[in-house]
Amino acid sequence: MSITGITLIYQYDSNDTIVTGALYDGNGTKTVIIPDSVTFIASNAFVNLGVNLTEITIPNSVVSIGSSAFKGCTSLATIIIPSSVTSVGSNALTGCRNLTSITIQNNVIGQSMYQNCTALESITIPSSVTSVGKSAFSGCISLTSISIQNNEISDLMFNNCISLQSITVPSSVTSVGKSAFSGCISLTSISIQNNKISDLMFNNCNSLQSITVPSFVTSVGTFAFNDCTSLTNITIKNNLINDTMFQGCNSLKNILELLSE
Q1: Could you tell me the pTM of the whole model?
Q2: Which of 36-50, 192-206, 231-245 has the lowest mean pLDDT?
Q3: CATH number for 127
Q4: Is residue 38 part of a domain?
Q5: Domain count of the chain?
Q6: Would you say residue 150 has pLDDT above 50?
Q7: Average pLDDT over residues 126-153
């Protein structure tokens, strides 16, 4: 059996055991199994490990993961967030650029939690997720497949996910933040099944050529398709067009004629 070279540092507070830091001795494996006595992972707890953390097991005893807890752990390839976790600080896994697999079993995704996880190719956000922080997957430049099963898309949630080619916004989504898919420059297909299009939702999605805005959409934000420079074909089945909805869409030369028909 291999022996880990990582030693955890603990703090004891009342009935809680908190992991506050970790040290690598340079010899053993770069894996961590957090004991099931631990309830909190503190902010910045594993930051100093950098490349020296390849695998971690988080038990169901953990209820909180602090800000930047695993930020910059660039050798970490996979992580499971257990259902026990109800609080996640900002930037918890930001910059884990070799992270290829995440399993979300809990109900909260923190602000910028997976930002710039540049190797992540696919994600599933389960219906159990009830809170998503802004910029949760921003800058995940290899992300090509997303399955949204929850009811919230936050501000900048998929901002600059430049490899994403198609998305479906399901009817379960009742809250959409601004700039949710802004800068998704490879996006060519969108299916809107919910009733809201937010401010700047598809801003600068400049590979998008056609869209359908269904009749059940009841709210359209400003600059929703701003600078979608390849957009040539639109089908609009409601009367919610605003003055800035298609601003900068220079290929939509006949849109006014289409609307007047």
Answers
A1: 0.93
A2: 231-245
A3: 3.80.10.10
A4: no
A5: 1
A6: yes
A7: 97
